[in-house]
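pipeline: protein-struct stage 2 | run 1193 | Prohibitin
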Amino acid sequence: MCAQILNRMGQLSLAVSLLGAVVKSSLFTVDSGHRAVIFDRFTGVRKQVVGEGTHFFLPWVQRPIIFDVRSQPRTVPVETGSKDLQNVNITLRILYHPIPGQLPRIYTNFGEDYDERVLPSIVPEVLKAVVAQFDAGELITQRERVSQRVSDELTVRARSFGFMLDDISLTHLAFGRELTAAVEMKQVAQQEAEKARFIVEKAEQHKLASIISAEGDAAAADLLAKSFEEAGDGFVELRRIEAAEDIAHQLSRSPGVSYLPSGQSTLPNLATNMVAPLT
């Protein structure tokens, strides 16, 4: 009796273990930021997208394919030509993620490595089409406009393949050596032209100042002539007195200057008084 009970317990334990193994193999977990697509051997890829959490599936019959739907970065270098036939090297950095509702179509058409198949194809195509509409100078001076045009067209193009672009930026823009040297020479020429224009404007200002000064001198001469006509020698005598007063004022401030009365021989008298009489 005990042997039968132990045998049944062993069978029950084996059945429970087998059931646990079957249940465990029938479960799969979708982590945060991920989605899953179920492939059925009989019906193909199911259109229903499985969200986060733990879910059941039929082993051997069904297989879950898990996708990361968070934003992922990618850098794509492209060499193309501008409107004026200049070689341009552009590096585009994008953040992208698949549209969760489009995952069945993405897996059916492109597989799990959809980004490796789609992005290297559509990014160069859009970049070349946009850059060809601008010449080299516009690519430099209108970089924001070029980036916006690329973003708009590439977003529409990517959406048709089932994923979204969260951010697009031009991280590198370089031209050939010949164009770079020509741009540098043009900048130097512009700076020299600005310098020459400044010199010309400065000369014009000096010329204008000289004309104004000459006009002032002429006006002063006219005033002097009128004064001479009206006052005669009196005006000249007044200016002579003013000049004498100014000279006297300047000399009075000098410690080494002495005044002598007019019409007297002061220095010889001083010399005579300083000599003692002979005995």
